[in-house]
Write a structure and sequence with these properties.
521 residues; alpha/beta; single chain
Amino acid sequence: MSQGVFVDNSIFLGGGGEDYATQQFLNLKYANRHGLIAGATGTGKTVTLQILAEGFSNAGVPVFMADVKGDLSGLAKSGSADFKLHEAFTKRATQIGFADYVYENFPVTFWDLFGDQGHPIRTTVAEMGPLLISRLLELSEAQEGILNIAFRLADEEGMPLLDLKDLQALLVWIGESRKDLSLRYGNISVQSIGAIQRRLMVLENQGAAKFFGEPALELADLMRVDAEGRGSVNILAADKLMASPRLYATFLLWLLSELFEELPEVGDPDKPKLVFFFDEAHLLFEDAPKALVDKVEQVARLIRSKGVGVYFITQNPADVPEDILGQLGNRVQHALRAFTAKDRKNLRMAAETYRDNPRFSTEDAIREVGVGEAVTSVLLKKGVPSVVERTLIRPPSSQLGPITLSERKSFMQSNPLASKYDVKVDRNSAYEILQKRSEAAAAEAAKLEEQEEEMEAMQREYSSARRYSGSRVGRSSSTRSRSSRDADFGTQMRKMVMKELTGTTGRRIVRGVLGSLFKGR
């Protein structure tokens, strides 16, 4: 393990100053106070993300990061002298005083919501909750209200909501019972239920159904440390996930919320318990309702006391709401381009968030830094931000660029978590409970119909016997009276059966029809 990236409870970032010989470090004690990595496309954000992950891992801090372009998988493999940039990397290491620069790999675990390029990450519908699912489905206020009713009923009726088919089945049941439920919970319209079902179907068609179910992710599996004391580097395959940006943003927000709820308070530890990198951060805030932005701000503000650092990666700091941006104490700002008036305004605003360095103009530096170079500011003693500095980012020790698909598969197969997460489990939940209820109602209805048929057969047999006895000559008036009473008795029996069919049992027969629909799934 290279010690050069982890010295005196700090992570080596690169060289600063006029000759880049002044080493720049990120203090682990303040690494849980969040951070920002920003810059235009192609300016070096991915390499900065990679070297930070290496530094945290060597310091024994697990990390979780989304791999939007597939480049970060190289963390699992050591760099090589055969690499075309080997000579440039070695020269840079010498320039910034990185004396013990060596190539090495890191303990990587690959994850994928779709289960293709990593171990499946799942959560249950109940754990995701109505607020985030409403955000994911882009529901109106009325539709979100119905979703809240569904979650409330699931709790009251003892019906676990684990996967999408559980929620779909529960919504059907609510639609059937809407008249009774509306008296208790307010109006429940068929149109709103239908709209939710259609959006769930779209989500299912996009493959997101794989995300909901069991076994659900255990957060402890993201926070493992290997035998050498290095933190696990958890890489989420996000290239396909980016086609569903709301699912991507909702998942990451859910993960932050779970960490906040489950982890104990630790105050300000000597180093973070986990560092969370949120790439393409603007996706979380685009068109987001205020309630959701407020929740992100709350989680970002409070989760640091759980020992979790959150680092947003985006093209422009303006992509992050100001209240959240103010909480990001550690910053690596790569070049920003200023081609339009709006770009120049954003550049000026970005420069104003740094503590000035008298040697240069921060605004000019942000505009002029080259690829692999950045303007940096980190938290020092007592959480005071350092003076802004132009920094040449250190070269990565792991492979720059992605590994092959076969190499990825090999890493996945050898990971002990494969046996835990790769096979989906479908236990008894809302769908199965409602299916059994429907089957029971259908069986009861069939039994009642059979009894009615037997009654009708008895009535026909009785009527046939009456016609036969009626052909006899000399029938007395007392016989006719008795026949009339018997006919009345048969008529009353038929009325009782029809009354039962139109009553509660009859309604159960109608609900029994739903059972056949469930069977057809």
